[in-house]
Amino acid sequence: MIEDDAYQGLNHLSTLILTGNPIQSLALGAFSGLSSLQKLVAVEINLASLEDFPIGHLKTLKELNVAHNLIHSFKFPEYFSNLPNLEHLDLSNNKIQNVYHEDLKVLHQMPLLNLSLDLSLNPLDFIEPGTFKEIKLNELTLRSNFNSTHVMKICIQGLAGLKINRLVLGEFKNERNLQSFDRSVLEGLCNLTFEKFRIAYFSEFPRDDTGLFNCLVNVSMISLLSLDLDSLEALPKDCRWQHLELINCNFKQFPTLKLNSLKEFVFIDNKGMSTFTEFELPNLQFLDLKRNRLSFKGCCSHTNFGTTKLKHLDLSFNDVITMNSNFLGLEQLEYLDFQHSNLKQANDFSVFLSLRNLRYLDISYTNTRVVFHGIFVGLVRLQTLKMAGNSFQNNLLPDIFTELTNLIILDLSKCQLEQVSQMAFHSLPRLQVLNMSHNKLLSLDTLPYKPLHSLRILDCSFNRIMESKEQELQHLPRSLALLNLTQNDFACVCEHQSFLQWVKDQRQLLVGAEQMMCTQPLDMQDMPVLSFRNATCQMNKMIISVSVLTILLVSVAGVLVYKFYFHLMLLAGCKKYGRGESTYDAFVIYSSQDEDWVRNELVKNLEEGVPPFQLCLHYRDFIPGVAIAANIIQEGFHKSRKVIVVVSQHFIQSRWCIFEYEIAQTWQFLSSRAGIIFIVLHKLEKSLLRQQVELYRLLNRNTYLEWEDSVLGRHIFWRRLRKALLDGKPWRPEGTADADSRQQEATAST
């Protein structure tokens, strides 16, 4: 029940929906007060008649929907003359069977020139001839109304004299009444005047189309939906069609059309063929071929479509499209859509070079891998570019948008991007919307976005962003109004404290800031980023500082022990062997490159000379199976009175020699009896010697022996060396006697 004045006071209400209410009583003033109502939906309210519907005072009403009710009569009540703004009347799925001349008396007296009338799903049996004569309607829809082609033919003849903008005939997909369709049904259309015609979902449609469209030659637009058509060849020669739609029809091959008047051709969802066939439509401006699974062996030029006037081309959701032309003759194109088709050779050359008037380009999900940086050359007026679902070389977005200075919308989602070149967007000053979502970006590097002075919306959701450095956030364009960072891998740790605080401060800028979740650490996983507390970082600073200091001290101690391990090992050896007798007179440190001189000169003259000296040589005296460093310290330094350092160019360049020399310095410092004897084999370049600062200083401060390969030089060298080695050598009479005897033997043999 709706009583009088139920809606009183709702002067600004524009839409009222009463669907599904079991209304039993409507007061005469039920809708009073609705002075601005434009749309009234009264579906399934048990309405039996329009006469009893109290809406005659709703002068602003534009749309009335009384479908799915119990209305039997098509008679328009007198109050319809008070509804001058009514544009749409839906009487579908009622009980109307017959339509008489008297039913439309109101329309004859005061025609509603812009009225669209829907009578679908009413069981029509009869329309009195002349009922619609001289009546003007915007649209009339008759779908699933007739139980036979004979009844349908009679009813269409009853429409004679009707002047209408658009006529829709047919059935619904799930409401099929006619078992077959007779071409004679459409003959009655010759007595109507209409501009647009659609016919849909008729089973057993005539496969021979000869004469089928004779009464439709003067329409400007025709739409054939879900009909069993094999071909469309026998069209009248005088057809004036400007717009043709062929949707979900069972064509076995692409139709060969010859319609000079045609400007718009829509051919979609026709999956009975696989190959595109060229056609000749010289005045065609709009072409929609999406969702046909077509293959194009060569695309695209004016020869494919027989026109140079094309402005709109949609080839989306097809099969393989091989690009072998740069749209020669199609320079007027403004809209181009390839999405979800498989583009081939699109990256081999500047395929869009000729399209200087193009405003919209969609190559999303076309299996395009961008390698050629000149792929978009020529698109100087492009405003929208969609290339989601493709990929780039090395997953890096390069500078490929140089000429797109008028671009407003750019979609780069799902392109597997890991990095963005710093110059990627430098030539896009007018860009307003940028979609970078569903990629693999690890951080919010804002520097590439700095040149985008007009950017309003930036979507970086569904990436792997953990944080952004504080200084980088300053590069975000000031024009930015919405930034989406949801569904990323934010690390809610103190290290990123400045970024997390920035998120809190920029809630108005961030889309769904409450939905930004932490993924690290584990104790904050799936917690909102906004729940992170800076106080936690402050409380832990002291603990962290103490811990870091402790670790630092332990680390320094460890480094010192590691660095001076051999020196400490030498110190321990000095304590152990400090009071014992030395096994060797000298430990010889030399480069393996100088081993010939050591063997032939040093060893021969010292060990076989008078008095003899026992030298420690690594190739002879080191114990097998013991580490080299341990042998150097234990066998070399600990058991020797002196150290002989044979300095040469090879010595300075040897890491082992320098190591042994450094240990020798420590040994000299720790052992009071120790002494280092330097022998310079060859004159060294000062620049090379200065590489070892300590050695350079020692040679400058201390006396050293210099080898000279001459009789006098050798005599002085060996005398000075033996004297240095005798210093501190314990006296051995038996050794001296043996030496004297060897000297006498040597003299006798001479």
UniProtKB/TrEMBL annotation:
GO MF terms, alphabetically ordered: lipopolysaccharide binding; lipopolysaccharide immune receptor activity; transmembrane signaling receptor activity
Keyword Glycoprotein in annotation: yes
Domain TIR residues, every copy: 582-725
Keyword Iron: no
Protein location: Cell membrane; Cell projection, Ruffle; Early endosome
Membrane disposition: Single-pass type I membrane protein
Superkingdom field: Eukaryota
InterPro entries attached to this UniProt entry: Cys-rich_flank_reg_C (IPR000483), Leu-rich_rpt (IPR001611), Leu-rich_rpt_4 (IPR025875), Leu-rich_rpt_typical-subtyp (IPR003591), LRR_dom_sf (IPR032675), TIR_dom (IPR000157), Toll-like_receptor (IPR017241), Toll_tir_struct_dom_sf (IPR035897)
GO biological process: defense response to Gram-negative bacterium; detection of lipopolysaccharide; inflammatory response; innate immune response; leukocyte activation; MyD88-dependent toll-like receptor signaling pathway; regulation of tumor necrosis factor production; toll-like receptor 4 signaling pathway
Record-level GO cellular component terms: early endosome; lipopolysaccharide receptor complex; plasma membrane; ruffle
Keyword annotations from UniProtKB, A to Z: Cell membrane, Cell projection, Disulfide bond, Endosome, Glycoprotein, Immunity, Inflammatory response, Innate immunity, Leucine-rich repeat, Membrane, NAD, Receptor, Repeat, Signal, Transmembrane, Transmembrane helix, Ubl conjugation
A Pfam family: LRR_8
PROSITE patterns listed in its UniProt record: LRR (PS51450), TIR (PS50104)
TM stretches of this protein: 542-566
Homology family: Belongs to the Toll-like receptor family.
PANTHER family in the cross-refs: TOLL-LIKE RECEPTOR (PTHR24365), TOLL-LIKE RECEPTOR 4 (PTHR24365:SF521)
Name assigned to this protein: Toll-like receptor 4
Organism of provenance: Balaenoptera omurai
Gene name of the record: TLR4
